[in-house]
Amino acid sequence: MEKETSRLVAKKYVVPFVLVTSLFFMWGFARAILDVLNKHFQEVLDITITRSAMIQATTYVGYFLMALPAGLFINRFGYRRGVVMGLLLFAAGSLLFIPSESLLSFNFFLVSLFIIGCGLVVLETAANPYITELGARSTAASRLNLAQSFNGLGCIIAPVVMGQILFTGDGTINVALPYSIMGIAVLLVALIFCRVNLPEITGDDSTTADTDEPQGMRAVIGRLLRSRRFMLGVGALFCYEISEISINSFFLNYATDGGWMTPKEAAAVLSFCGLGLFMLARVAGSWVMSRIKAEKVLLACAVMTVLGSLLVTLDLGLPSKAGIFMCYAFEAIMFPTIFAISIRGLSGPSVKIASSFLMMSPLGGAVGTLLMGIVADATSMSAAFMVPCAGYAFVLIYAWTVIRGKLEKAA
Prior knowledge:
With 411 residues, the protein is mainly alpha-helical. It has 18 helices and no strands. Helix 12 (263-288) crosses helix 14 and helix 13 packs antiparallel against helix 18. It is globular, with a radius of gyration of 20 Å.
């Protein structure tokens, strides 16, 4: 028993862990493409930075609107069917890029991205809490950080691949082919998940009476809304997403501003330096948090991201350029760590519904990119980094509050 609790993943759950972890790569790839599309559409469709921010905004509005329905669906039909539904929506949105390119309609592209966002949130709502349950509670944050590192791998590959395809200099859109290939690949993965058996992790309160009834769901939601720790966790994730997504969205703008890099070079640097550093830091964070309390690691990382984003905002030359890479390194553990802390002590239907609330947080990405776009158009790209700096500051306050024990246990 002691040996089993010391394992990062319980022996009987190794295969489900591998299968579900593969999904983290897929949505990491899909989300990282957006960062390249942002700059690409500015050039080929001649739109402003603020207008191009609608790419992220539309995708993450899909997250917000679909998150709670996704949680209710997964609670009723289980994790496996939730994964399959998410994959089908993901594939449908990807394949819609074919008519979108034919019509050369930015608005039609946004519709396609909205559907992809709906699919991705279903996948994340299912996979994140599922991973935390595949072993001892004490290693949940470390286990989720390990799985999320494959999300980072997808993020590394996407910008460099799409940068080579999109930034050809001939003024063409070039997006239908990579998205149609991705859509077909996702359909094949959906077929695999239709045929595999994912054991349901029911938890301690799975036998609670009438939890599938509306009255039971209202009680679960009511308990979550009254939990100060959980609600502050939702707020912290929202602010983290403001910072992380907005920096990714405008990295290419920042790197090409003033001739520092070409768009193609910036896409490669984003992949290998920015997001590569992000992935390595997430793997390292998984190891560190198996030895140091997750809350303390979160606090230290929050301090460093505030410092890094502040350096960029002040536009100090080389220190500012180093500051943006500090953000990538130290933000890496934030999402899975805040997520694991927020659902600590929950089980059964509470976990699934809590996950759906937490997965509304990427709406912060929509808010952050729009705010950064407005500030950048009005002032400069460097000054716009005050937006992610404010988001990291809230995460710092949250981590400090958790360490001081000011939040009650989750409901």
